[in-house]
């Protein structure tokens, strides 16, 4: 294995790498390797994980309440199309 040293990483990139490492529970080294593999096309990147933190937060009651409140959006009002 080769070792690479990267100098002068800007603050925005540093924050992004560290956030992703915490999110994925990986070391900084593992995170950077993963990111390089994904962005170079060697490894496939997850399609989208921007909203993963919000998935699975609703219990059944909350979901049913929400569905009840937005159910009227499923109905077509023919007057809107005249």
* Terminal CA distance: 69 Å
Q: Main sheet, how many strands, which sense, barrel?
A: none
- Beta content: under 5%
Helix content: 40-55%
Q: Strand pairing plus helix content: what structural class?
A: mainly alpha
Would you mind describing this structure in some detail?
- With 82 residues, the chain is mainly alpha-helical.
- It has a domain at 1-46.
- 46% of the residues lie in helices and 0% in strands.
- Helix 1 (11-24) packs across helix 2 (28-40).
- The longest helix is centred in the N-terminal third of the chain and has 14 residues, at 11-24.
- The protein is elongated.
- The termini are far apart.
- 1% of the residues are buried.
Summed up, what is this model?
The protein has about 80 residues and is an all-alpha fold. The chain contains three helices and no strands.
Q: What is the topology?
A:
Layout: H1 11-24, H2 28-40, H3 60-70
What keywords describe this structure?
82 residues; mainly alpha; 0% strand
């Amino acid at each position: 294995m080769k070792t690479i040293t990267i100098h002068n990483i800007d603050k925005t990139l540093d924050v992004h790498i560290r956030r992703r490492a915490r999110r994925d529970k990986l070391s900084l080294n593992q995170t950077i390797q993963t990111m390089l593999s994904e962005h170079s096309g060697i490894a496939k990147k997850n399609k989208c994980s921007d909203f993963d933190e919000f998935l699975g937060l609703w219990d059944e009651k909350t979901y049913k309440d929400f569905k009840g409140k937005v159910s009227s959006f499923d109905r077509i009002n023919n007057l809107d199309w005249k």
